[in-house]
Amino acid sequence: MTFVQPSNGPSPVVRLLPQLADFAAREYGTSPFLQRWTPAGWQSLSYEEFARAVHAFAALLVAEDVKVGDRIGLQAENRPEWGVAYLAILEAGGVVVPLDVQLRAQEVGEILATSGATACVASARQMPLMREVRDARLSSLGLFSLDDTDGVPHYAQALARFPDQAQRVLTAQPADLAVLIFTSGTTGQGKGVMLSHSNLLHNVEGVSRTFEFGPGDRLLSVLPLHHTFESTGGFLCPMRVGASVAYARG
């Protein structure tokens, strides 16, 4: 499947979505990027730390047999690791299938089956549902966790095993499929919408050059990250311009 490249508007600063992580690390370095609330106060992940985490998690996915073109589900609450997993899946050569955390097992199973997903990355809170989906419908579904979950390759393992991993050699092209998003299905079952690297990067560049925000600005992320609006406006665009993002506590 190929996509039509946008013919107008500003050109993106990178060719592929995962390259935004290293672009931002070079441009904004130790500036805070993603922030979460902890009992000790706000905890920040810098742009450099974020890029290293993306490369480490991508290396873990590849080590666990994620292949180029694999559809990989992503179901988790809004948190810094969501963005890490999103770009890591793409760096590993996969296609991201974002999932609403409010979906039931039957709905998740339908989306993963329809998309042809071979694995899913989930938070500990979502892992019981993922195991239910695997046991009921997708027996070969690989599982990865954003938390330290027994028996499942997870985020902390990636950081420990691949702390200095460089960005993988990327073989994708700008017009290749990057994200497969399923609509809310208000007129029936959810429908898969195919978005390429180029689709999203041109959107990011257009927004970044239209609105005046950048280093020193902080955004509050409230909407669910599986929504294209939030993952673009509240994650990819801030990364492009060097702003920081704080995830709402609720």
Quickly list its features.
four-stranded parallel sheet; 38% helix; 250 residues; alpha/beta; four-stranded mixed sheet
Structural write-up:
The structure is a single chain. The chain has about 250 residues and is of the alpha/beta class. The protein has eight helices and ten strands. Strand 9, helix 8 and strand 10 form a beta-alpha-beta unit.
> What about the largest sheet?
4 strands, mixed
Which ranges are low-confidence, i.e. pLDDT below 50, for 5 or more consecutive residues? none
Helix and strand content put the structural class at alpha/beta
Radius of gyration: 17 Å
Task: Choose one word for the global shape.
Answer: globular
Number of strands: 10
User: Oligomer, anyone?
Assistant: single chain
Order of helices and strands: HEEHEHEHEHEHEEHEHE
Topology at a glance:
Elements: H1 19-28, E1 32-38, E2 41-46, H2 47-63, E3 71-75, H3 80-91, E4 95-98, H4 105-115, E5 117-122, H5 127-136, E6 142-145, H6 155-161, E7 177-182, E8 192-196, H7 197-210, E9 218-221, H8 228-241, E10 244-247
Parallel strand pairs: 1-10, 3-4, 3-5, 5-6, 9-10
Antiparallel strand pairs: 1-2, 7-8
Helix pairs in contact: 1-2, 1-8, 2-3, 2-6, 4-5, 7-8
Brief sketch in words of this structure:
This protein has 250 residues and is an alpha/beta fold. The protein contains eight helices and ten strands.
